[in-house]
Amino acid sequence: VQLVQLGAELSRPGASVKVSCKASGYNFSDYYIHWVRQTPGQKFEWMGRIDPGDGGTDYAQKFQGRVTFSADTSISTAYVELRSAKFEDTAVYYCALELLRWGQGTQVTVSS
């Protein structure tokens, strides 16, 4: 079982950024993918989750309306898109299979 994420993404304030998570080694449609971020102050924030099988999503209240989860079962890849990026969105974004197996994280930097 493996979750692979790209190393880094750069965004400007007000722009959108999309992070991918490619899964392998299991049936992608059968398990939730969670998204968690770790801020520079080391705080972990659970952003929400997606059921790749039916596209059902749950969002943490803080991210409701500004974040969208999606999944492409044909390529076993999940995505999180963050809109209207802010400086404080700078963090490492992790995908996690049922919070048990984690990707290596994608550093998202929001900078002007």
Summarize the topology.
Elements: E1 2-4, E2 8-11, E3 17-24, E4 33-38, E5 44-50, E6 57-59, E7 67-72, E8 77-82, E9 91-97, E10 101-102, E11 106-110
Parallel strand pairs: 2-11
Antiparallel strand pairs: 1-3, 3-8, 4-5, 4-9, 5-6, 7-8, 9-10, 9-11
What does the model show?
- With about 110 residues, the protein is mainly beta.
- The chain has strands at about 1-5, 10, 15-25, 35-40, 45-50, 55-60, 65-70, 75-80, 90-95, 100, 105-110.
- The strands form 2 sheets. Strands 2, 4, 5, 6, 9, 10 and 11 form a 7-stranded mixed β-sheet that branches.
- A hairpin with a 5-residue loop joins strand 4 and strand 5.
- The mean pLDDT is about 95.
What about the largest sheet?
7 strands, mixed
The radius of gyration over CA amounts to 13 Å
Share in helix: under 10%
Low-confidence stretches: none
The number of helical segments is 0
Strand content: over 45%
- What separation lies between the terminal Cα atoms? 37 Å
| Number of extended strands | 11
Question: Key terms for this structure?
Answer:
single chain, 112 residues, mainly beta, 7-stranded mixed beta sheet, 4-stranded antiparallel beta sheet, globular
Briefly say what this structure is.
The protein has 112 residues and is mainly β.
